[in-house]
Design goal:
The structure holds two protein chains of two kinds. Chain A is built from eleven helices and no strands. The N terminus of chain A is likely disordered. By secondary structure, chain A is mainly alpha-helical. By secondary structure, chain B is mainly alpha-helical. Chain B is built from twelve helices and no strands. In chain B, helix 6 crosses helix 8. Chain B is globular. The mean pLDDT of chain B is 83. The chains are: A mainly alpha, B mainly alpha.
């Protein structure tokens, strides 16, 4: 990263080159590589679901109930004769979308609260007591509680999961924000007349992005697991929406005779969470040297 | 020490107050009219009005909040609509089940997770380290209800070694109790073991890089003593922090595992309450759990002072 200190004529070209260096360092990290491949395959499968399979995820063919995996039905069929492979593909869409939006909202909310707490001292103790109270609950319980109050909709699952993880990201951003606000360049910005908004968003936020991105990745993994758990408890996206958790839940009653119904969506959940965790490990090691755990 | 304990508990009071207020607003400020939901879709306006008055929902929100806090101070956490029972007694009835599950799971998690993390750190960058970390990573990536179902198929249905569901109170013997709990407890522990092993390993790696570890080795301290006394002792504060977090994760995770193994614990109560839209029960149960977690956090803070003399609270 010595390139970063080069000034003068090359300064224009720098951001692009720095990004390239970062990408190279990320891909040299084994966990990141494996995680990237897993997530890319899942995202592609989700995006291309209508291309990969021509069957509708909710199409019932009563003639073909409980068919074990075969060439015709790679993952078998369920109790209504629906193709489990198709449902798992469409389930990837729903589950990844919920995980993505929930973790993104959690990151945005956490960033705003964390930066506000780090910048405005009087607000800090108030916000931190508030997060103390929220952190008293395990995230999954908080999500269950919020979701129960909002009612069974996809949006309420997203909001519940996001709200459950906001306190954690707020804590992480605040911790880096508190360090950054004491640095000289913040004073310099203030002296040159920058207002609170400019200091927070132009100077503090970019420097909190690394820990924020790392926690977003891990929260993505947790959110996928939590969404599946909520669906399993019957308070996720309402059926017949094929979220991975819903399919496992539906297949549970037939888990002995028709194991394929619950096996494959569960593998999907595990793979997605594994991929995001691997990405998170890689990002943390490369982006956040303070947390570096691999040499 | 007494002063520290007293001050930690005093600091917990405002947090508990906030937990109570948050729980209240969680149930009250969200869309949907509880009175309509409780009375049912077909209920007449008069019936809805009656329910509303009965629950005190016709009063201003602030007045309701004050009433709720006053009742809490009197030890009244509300009354369940479906169980015809106070929330406190409903929770108390199911507490032993959840506590037993969390306890057995905790007892499995802590030694296994710490041992895996420490050993992986000591054999850093070997195949053993890679293997342990791969297992830990898989542990934090598997959905526990799915593992639970697979485990029941293998150990209960196919092999017939363990019961697939139900709870046996401990006063009917230690073995039946443990046999009923061991499978859910291990399933529940998997995530936390992976989590703890990953944390312990990274903490250990950091400490093992310190100069005083090199000094210890140089002056001829045995490897075992170096790892146990010089290195591990210094990771204890973080390991205890994580252990406390794990205890609350266990109680959160038990909501799901209790559902699969039909254990009549607090988690099952909560899900049952949500399904029946029994708002007072949901609210009261969430609050009691919240208080339990605040208490756990205070206990962890107190344990810090015991294990690390450098930690001081003023």
């Amino acid at each position: 990263m010595t390139d970063a200190t080069v000034a003068g004529p090359t300064a224009q070209a720098l951001p692009a080159r720095r990004r390239f260096v970062l990408a190279r360092r990320l891909f040299r990290h084994r966990s990141f590589r494996i995680g990237f491949v897993i997530v890319a395959v899942l995202v592609l499968a989700a995006a291309l679901a209508p291309v990969i399979t021509s069957i509708e995820p909710t199409a019932m063919q009563i003639r073909y109930r409980f068919r074990p995996p075969s060439w015709q039905f790679p993952f078998g069929t369920d109790m209504f004769g629906r193709d489990v492979f198709t449902r798992v593909l469409y389930g990837a869409r729903l589950s990844l979308w919920i995980g993505f939006t929930a973790s993104l909202l959690a990151a945005i909310g956490g960033a705003l609260l964390g930066l506000a707490a780090a910048y405005y001292k009087p607000l800090d103790s108030l916000l931190m007591r508030f997060t103390d109270a929220l952190l008293a609950f395990p995230a999954i319980l908080l999500a269950i509680g919020i979701n129960a109050a909002l009612g069974p909709q996809i949006q309420s699952v997203i909001i519940a999961l996001a709200a459950a993880y906001v306190p954690r990201t707020a804590r992480i951003v605040r911790a880096s924000g508190l360090v950054i606000r004491e640095l000289d360049y913040i004073d310099a910005a203030r002296v040159s007349g920058a207002g609170a908004g400019r200091i927070i968003f132009r100077h503090m936020l970019p420097n909190c992005l690394a820990p924020l991105l790392v926690s977003l990745t891990f929260i993505f993994a947790y959110a996928i697991l939590a969404e599946a758990a909520l669906s399993f408890l019957g308070i996720g996206p309402p059926p017949p929406a094929p979220s991975w958790g819903n399919i496992v839940s539906e297949g549970r009653d037939y888990s002995v005779e028709a194991w394929w119904i619950m096996l494959f969506p569960g593998l999907g959940i595990s793979l997605a969470a594994l991929g995001m965790n691997l990405l998170g490990d890689g990002l943390r090691d490369v982006l956040d040297p303070r947390l570096k755990i691999e040499s | 020490m007494t002063r520290i304990i007293a001050s930690r508990f005093a600091q917990a009071v405002p947090v508990m107050f906030l937990v109570a207020v948050l729980t209240f607003f969680l149930m009250h400020l969200l869309p949907g009219d509880p009175a309509v939901i409780i009375a049912g879709d077909q209920a007449s306006p008069a019936a809805i009005e009656r329910v509303r008055r009965q629950l005190g929902l016709d009063r201003p929100v602030l007045e309701q909040l004050v009433l709720w806090i006053v009742h809490l101070l009197q030890g009244d956490f509300g009354t369940s609509l479906i169980l015809n029972q106070s929330v406190v007694s409903a929770v108390a009835e199911r507490l032993p089940v959840t506590l037993s599950l969390a306890l057995v799971s905790f007892v499995i998690t802590i030694p296994v997770g710490i041992a895996l993390g420490v050993i992986a750190a000591c054999f850093r960058d070997t195949w053993f380290d890679a293997g342990v970390m791969a297992v830990a990573l898989v542990g934090v990536s598997l959905p526990n209800f799915w593992v639970a179902i697979l485990s029941v198929i293998l150990f209960s249905v196919t092999l017939g070694w363990l019961p697939s569901a139900g709870y046996v109170p401990i006063d009917r013997g230690l073995w039946p109790w443990l046999a009923a709990l061991i499978q859910p407890a291990v399933v529940l522990a998997l995530f936390q073991i992976g989590f703890l092993a990953r944390m312990t390993r990274s903490e250990m790696l950091e400490v093992l890089d310190q100069d005083y570890i090199r000094t210890a080795r140089a002056k001829g301290v045995t490897e075992w003593q170096t790892v146990a006394k010089h290195a591990f002792r210094n990771t204890l504060v973080s390991v205890i922090t994580v252990s406390g977090y794990i205890l609350s994760l266990l109680i959160g995770g038990s909501v799901i595992v209790e559902q699969v193994f039909a254990l009549p614990g607090i988690g099952r109560l909560l899900v049952q309450a949500i399904m029946a839209r029994d708002y007072p029960l949901v609210q009261g149960t969430m609050l009691l759990l919240g208080f339990a977690f605040v208490f756990i956090n205070v206990m962890i803070d107190l344990i810090y002072t015991a294990v690390d003399p450098r930690v001081r609270y003023d």
